[in-house]
Amino acid sequence: MTDLTKIVPAGVVTGDDLLKLLKHARDNGYAIPAVNCTSSSSANACLEAARKNNSPVMIQVSNGGGSFLCGKAIKDPNAAAAGSVALAMHVRAVAKYYGVPVVLHSDHCAKKLLPWFDGMIDADEEYFAKYGEPLFSSHMLDLSEETDEENIAICVEYFKRLSKINIWLEMEIGITGGEEDGVNNENIDPEKLYTTPEQVYSVYEALSKIGPMFSIAAAFGNVHGVYKPGNVKLSPEKLGNHQAFTKKKISSSLEKPIFLVMHGGSGSTDDEIALAVKNGVVKMNIDTDTQWAYWDGLRAFEKDKHAYLQGQIGNPEGADKPNKKYYDPRKWIRCAEETMAKRVGVSMEKLSSVGKYPASNEPGSSQLGELKQPINPALLVSVGVAIGSIGAMLMK
Fold this sequence. Notes:
With 396 residues, this protein is of the alpha/beta class. Helix content is 46%, strand content 14%. Strands 1, 2, 3, 4, 5, 6, 9, 10 and 11 form a 9-stranded parallel sheet that branches. Helix 3 crosses helix 4 and helix 7 (197-207) crosses helix 8. It is globular, with a radius of gyration of 23 Å. The relative contact order is 0.14.
């Protein structure tokens, strides 16, 4: 296995570095957890888990998460995009300090949410114009509620725009059941929970003409939400059929020519997850389980310190004893971060990403406004000489 630290830098990765990362995952049989975050605190918990487990990580934001990040009191139609950009800026400011590769991603975007998508791309394009790379690493379009023809057509148009600024596109074909972030598929026709090889190939055929930086969330019985393992009927073997069908169609030398994504992982057994990864899944979404983990840390703290959290003054140690060190948000938020980081680590183990990137101990730095390719000093000297020569000629 190629040493990932030799080919992919620590910190937020985009463009060719992201492509190298996901190729390494696909070719070496592991996937990267993509965790929905709604605050700098939950993002830091993911980064902490990545560093402790020597693993790449994906931090993603949903439309609802973006709105929450901006502030629920704000009713501006651009609030979700503004909040999503704010999270991206925070992660860019701190990611390198954790010493592992970090992918900045936006989650499900249905047709009705395209203004949010456009707002993020506008920010990407502005950032790219200044610094030579996009703000985010990747974005997802979920147009699975539309016809396949419209779904693919819209994805093609957006992918043309994204490819110009080196952004990865994730799309969904087939429907993930359950409910998430306002999209309810709880009563969907069960047959629609299983994407066919022909559907997957139609996406590959359309998008591969534009570029290689795309992935497909193909449904194989996935359901959003929390379920007891075994209560959701997954068929990850279908993902292998998708790979084989496309491999034959394009005469590929690769066993797994498609980058696949797994949604609705809660309730999946370890064997189901392992088979999905074996069949080319390079990213698995996590939300429900990490939401619970974050709350569980706070719940346990409150239960343990309940008597110290009933007022600013007065506790079992004395009626005049202060309780500030217990109700200080840094205390109980930290407990939530610790349990969330531990749960993200569990997903890293299930996806076999643990140990794939020994965390760097190099000094950290911000990636806000960092030039991707600084101007070559030799080029500056050459330009200076040329200007001097022209000036000398004009003075004669």
